[in-house]
Amino acid sequence: MCVKVACVGGGPAGLYLSILLKRQDPSHHITVYERGPEGSAYGWGVTYWQALLDQLHARDPESARALEGGSVRWNQGVADVRGLAIRQPGDVGHGIGRHRLLEILADRARNLGVHLEFEREITADDPPEADLLVAADGVHSALRTRHADHFGTHLTTGRNPYLWLGTTRVFDSFTFAFVETGHGWIWCYGYPCGAERSTCVIECGPRTWTGLGLDRASEADGLALLERLFAHVLDGHPLIGRAPAGGRARWLTFRTLTNRAWYRGNLVLLGDAAHTTHYSTGAGTTLALEDAFALADALRECADLPQALARYQHERKAALLPAQSAARHSAQWYESLTRYIDLPPEQMFALLGQRHSPLLPYVPPRLYHRLDRAAGQLEALRRFKRWLGPRLARTAHARASATRA
User: Fold this and answer.
1) Which pLDDT score, from 0 to 100, does residue 88 have?
2) What per-residue confidence (pLDDT) applies to 42?
């Protein structure tokens, strides 16, 4: 159906969509435009889970094998509170360096005949001519911003500052560490993303950030302070602020982006240009790739482009609702850390694993823990929990939407 496709943005979603479309019809003329130089991806590692890997193997076994071969695995979680570590088994997780992920996808796209143009800035004033124009250019998408009123773009800024770092400490599990300072709590999430590196995300509340002087410290001084605070977790290894081929690490606050519409004419949004979910759920790359799955399927199965884009929008907006709800509640859990941090370590870790629950904010933590344990044994309680949680989530979402309106 789409003879000529232009994808603006060379991230995972755009590259994988080009792979899928070329596999569906090698006659498609597909170009991926990326404003940065090849190999210049900023960032450390990304996470994904076995369910995504299974889908990748089903859709393109060759790139899936390369992806799996370049990833590291874990099946445990560790929570360290005040130096006391609790280890528990969990689902199989995978980590891979963002640079390696993009390298694998770019090589596969090229081998299939996709044309990749690096160091090519595409502006909203001069978009490439194409039957289908894909905006995969991230949260600051120029193509989307040009028509922000049509798309109904809404950005919500989170409360807590965070910093995305690397370290030479190779964690053997997904690791959470919480450190109490004289200015409040600060914590990190660490996970391996290669044989020699891990990703380490630091987060804290605004008062802790300013109280520790992290808001005004130089990069070197800030990293030195963080290395001291997390010395027991890093085991003598340094934190690295400058990602491979990237710029210096900067403190940010997370921006949750939503759009009322996902397409306009032949322009369609993909990945972070369409939506973002809080990093604490580790789902950003997975959701972006699932966008690519859905768009490729719709283009293959629908009779014309408007029908395909309407189907894609409907399916992905509905599929994202649980993930967006989970991300909101995960972010709120960390913003409300003092509600949970003084629980016995086993209970605190259990509720850390339940942080996506829409029910948790409305139930005293100790009572929730008891109910959750009982629900694991009683089917009636499990059904009640599944029934009540989504209703509370919808009520909270409706209130938030009404407030924005």
Assistant:
1) 87
2) 72
